[in-house]
Amino acid sequence: MKTRSFSLALLGLMGLLPFTAMAQSVAPAPDAAPAAPHLSPEQQDQQAAEDEAIPLTPEMIRRLGNRLKENQKAREDVATEVAAPTSRPAIRVSFAPGQQTSLIFTTKGYPTAVSFVDRSGAPWPIAWNTTSTSANPDGLKNCSSDGGKGGSPAVQTTGFYTCVPYAGSNTINIEPLSLSPRGGLLVTLKGAIKPISFLLLAGRGTYDDNLTVRVNEDGPNAKQEMGPEAAPGTAEPFMNAMLSGIAPASAVPQSVEGLSPDDVRAWRMGNELYIRTRLALMTPAWDSSERGEDGYTLYAFRQTPYILLSDSGRTVSASLKDMTP
After folding, report:
1. Residue 49 phi, psi (nearest 5)
2. Are 75 and 88 contained in the same domain?
3. Cα-Cα-Cα-Cα dihedral sign, residues 270, 272, 277, 279
4. Which of 53, 76, 155, 238 shows a CA-CA span of 20 to 30 A to 66?
5. Where is there biased composition of kind Low complexity (predicted)?
6. Please, what are the averages of pLDDT over each run of 10 residues along the chain (325 residues)?
């Protein structure tokens, strides 16, 4: 009886049971104060009626409220993970056969943004289906679906919610529907010869918050490169990481004098120098270059003490030397 009364009282606090019904069903609180001897019989009857109508004392209400909050917190704890975002260099993909499937790490409750760019660094839009209305076999609509009037993105997955915000966007947002789903993702880019496949993993305690996928082809918005800048990149993984601002452990940071560190970052590996900048390198001639989607370019050239760059048509010079610890 005590357990039933406590449960009914909790339901009453949650608004799931009418207060009058709760008052009729719950026995007077066992710890209710006895009638004061100095009260008259009429006053004692009035107090007894009040205790019967409102059997819960303020202390009991507070205790029930705290328990309700703890229960709600426990439900949220078991349904949501605490995860840390990770920063990874752009991953490279290709349409060539036999390519390894790339991994994307996700966590329920934390959206992952994946952006696609071509080898020139230009955004590569996701293809758009004008006749379909859903990008999720689970039955969920894509966030940009509008009942078939505007179609939906050429994206397919199971166990994950996907969102391409608008037609022509090169970014897809991904979020797991459960704590530990395993599934794949197929994304067809505009004008591409075939979809790009990914393996989606969740439940690792970390997730990709903002990931760039660099396709080793020219997309519909490819930048036209002129002169020495058209030299092909080496496609070395460390160059891809440097373009994201992450240098390998063997790279020696360079002190850049004459320019702000916000304009140029530089490293030396052996006799080769690498600079990451939004400015245009004029001299020396570079061996290769990599373009990023954020306007940065990574140049690789033989070691030299001075470089010339163009800043909106203005020529600026800088000197490079190993940064002392």
Report:
1. -65, -40
2. no
3. positive
4. 53
5. 30-47
6. 49 47 46 60 74 76 84 73 85 86 91 91 88 54 53 84 90 89 90 93 88 90 61 63 84 88 88 90 88 83 90 87 79
What is the per-residue pLDDT for 28?
47
200/309 same-domain check? no
Same domain, 75 and 89: no
Same domain assignment for residues 200 and 300: no
Domain range spanning residue 10? 2-79
pTM of the predicted protein model = 0.62
**pLDDT for res 196:** 93
